Amino acid sequence: MNKVVLMGRLTRDPETRYTQTNNTLVASFTLAVNRRFARQGEERQADFIPIVAWNKTGEFCSKYFKKGQQVGVIGRIQTRNWDDDQGQKHYVTEVIAEEAYFADSRRDGAGDNFENTFGTAVSESQEFQVSSDDDLPF
Description:
Elements: E1 4-10, E2 15-18, E3 25-34, E4 46-54, H1 55-64, E5 70-83, E6 89-102, E7 105-107, E8 114-116, E9 119-123
């Protein structure tokens, strides 16, 4: 089984492009994911994990995800390699996002009350549905 669950902060806004062959949308971004433990006397370390989101998931990520925002991603690990123009072989390991979530808390208009906005945003099998403006996490 190949399943990855990550929560982290975007290091930059998602970058969107379209494939040349069939004009499919693909969004890519990097998540800074804190490691669970820190060595005594040291700062907590983070891993910077490349994420690729296709089709509806990619469209959602490119539209609503912004640098610094905390998000959750569920997907699978994929590796690929290629040779560049000089014949140098390149390898990359990335997470293919199958589901994307908001994971930030945002300040509610009243006092110090915080509202958690963690919830399903979009997945390849379902689209984002909102029943009222109050359900929008932004």
